[in-house]
Amino acid sequence: MLKNSISERELLVGGEDVVIFDSSAQKEAAMDWTAFLLSEESQKMMAEVGVIPTLSSLAGDPAMPDYFDVFLAQLETAQARVPHPAWSDMDGAINNAFQRMLRGDQTTQQALDQAAAEINELLGAPAPEVTEVEPATVAYWHTMSDPETAQLENVVAAFEAANPGITVETTRYAYDDFKSALLTGLAGGAAPDTARMDIAWVSEFANQDALMQLDGAMPGFDDIAAQTFPGPLSTNFWQGHYYGLPQNTNTQVLLWNKEIFDAAGITEPPATMAEFADIACTLTEGETQYGYALGGTYFWAPAPIFYAMGGEIVDEGITTADGYINGSESVAAFTMLKELFDEGCISPNILGGGIGTADGHATGLYAMIIDGPWMVDIYAGNYPDFEVNFAPVPTGADGSTSSVVGGEDVVIFAGSDSADAAMKWTAFLMSEESQKMMAEVGVIPTLSSLTGDPAMPDYFDVFLTQLETAQARVPHPAWSDMDGAINNAFQRMLRGDQTPQEALDQAAVEINALLQ
User: How far is residue 105's CA from residue 115's CA, in Å, rounded to a whole number?
Assistant: First the structure.
């Protein structure tokens, strides 16, 4: 793939060379002539008729036509085709390979393998040794939707075509049954080789020594990890090592009802949390319209605002919650939500009952909600005439935005009998080819290189941008209980049983007990 910066691109060199024939009877004069042809004087003269010079000293020279600049800059890194008498035949071998790929006669790997053999023959090199591939079967468990499952079969077919001898057997589970199925499989020695599991489970299974450590073991792991968004990648980290890779991801952004905004004379969604709070109350009209609504008090619901305002749950080493969940930024985030709730600017459905956020936003009851990319399909099915408008989560006091990471990670189980094949399958799932295929059915990729890619649906842009700063929930086996502590604290605030500081102080104590 060509990089964005022109100075970093590597393209082919074309042009002509000046030579002196060995049979020349005027060699000294010929060398003088050759030297003059390579002089700045000669090169500048020829440049007047569009001949690009070969002297790097002329890059940027005012005597050069303006359009030469990009070509001279490109020549600093451009590469020559193979300087070999048989180049024409090598060119033909590559040309034929490319045509076989495009026609679908061979995979990219197969076509280039054949080209390599043909070029080696031209070079007089010995044919590469062909090693027998041991047949292997990789079991892969997942909880994908109907469209995702259908597309997965295409991904499997592409992988198997590129990896003869490896067969991938997929098994689909309902989400509610999946964790128990994995635990049962582990207990009975019948776990799959690989699985796509909830990001919140990875540390829990890793803590049970059920997962294979990938860093230092999986070929190409560091390169793959470096290409992913940091938030989703962090969900695989436990006690100094990585036990998975982020196969797909999601996050939450702001949804704003443009019709409600237009009626109030507000032309843009809020850019800052101060604007967000102001607009939430401006757009509230008693019980007939609320400026903002959350789906509940579980951490996923307030997490985007919490993280955008600088909130933290625990320290980086996951050793303490004191000074983090009850720190000033965390308290400020929950205080803002509590005040908006007390002022009637947040719908009371947050404590249960009432109209759900998706329905309420589409029908004009809730001016703003924060939710994920799945809302596109929900609204297309239930409210086809509703205009969905996304925006980044408003920025906090430091001017930065953030949100919460969701999604699934691909893991390899420690007892796999097909670990090498499983690592190849895992690497393929993380490839641009696979990630683009799954994006066709609405699965957001984890490769940051795909941000802005024309193959991505237009509405992915805001989510991929948000993912650059989105944060994972605490990757710890006790996360579920930590979530419960924060959920309970939020409810105590909203009911008025405790101030935000008091509620979060209690949550810090409860979370610290879980970290022991």
Answer: 14
Q: Which of 389, 379, 367, 371 has the alpha carbon at shortest distance from 302?
A: 371
The model's pLDDT over 105-147, given as tens digits with 9 standing for 90+, comes to 888 998 899 999 899 988 986 655 545 557 999 999 999 999 9
pLDDT at 32 over 80: yes
- Measuring CA to CA, how many Å separate 387 from each of 234, 399, 444? 34, 28, 21
Taking Cα atoms as reference points, which of 141, 139, 119, 117 lies closest to residue 128?
A: 117
Residue 237 parent element (H or E):
strand 237-238
Three-class SS string for 128-141? CCCCCCCCEEEEEE
User: What is the 8-class DSSP label of residue 5?
Assistant: S
How far, in Å, are 93, 117, 129, 162, 318 from residue 114 at the CA level?
A: 8, 5, 13, 14, 52
Task: Tell me the torsion sign for CA atoms 248, 252, 257, 261.
Answer: negative
3-state percent breakdown (helix, strand, coil) of the chain, nearest 5: 45, 15, 40
57 CB neighbour count, 10 Å cutoff: 9
Q: Which of 87-96, 173-182, 183-192, 321-330 has the lowest mean pLDDT?
A: 87-96
Structure tokens at 79: 């590469």
Decide if 429 contacts 218 (C-beta within 8 A). no
338 neighbors 503 (Cβ within 8 angstroms): no
Q: What is the mean pLDDT of residues 4-8?
A: 34
H/E stretch holding 242 reads strand 241-242
- Look at residue 10 and tell me whether its pLDDT is greater than 80: no
Burial annotation 378-402 (CB, 10 A radius, 16+ → b, else e): bbeeeeeebebebbbbbbbeeeebb
pTM, two decimal places: 0.72
Q: How many CB atoms lie within 10 A of CB 228?
A: 22
Whether 409 and 245 have beta carbons less than 8 Å apart is answered as: yes
Instruction: Enumerate the H helices of 163-314 as residue ranges.
Output: 175-187, 202-207, 221-226, 230-234, 258-263, 273-282, 303-308
Q: What number is the average pLDDT over the span 74-101? A: 90
For residue 170, the surrounding DSSP H or E stretch is strand 166-172
Other CB atoms within 10 A of residue 191 CB: 23
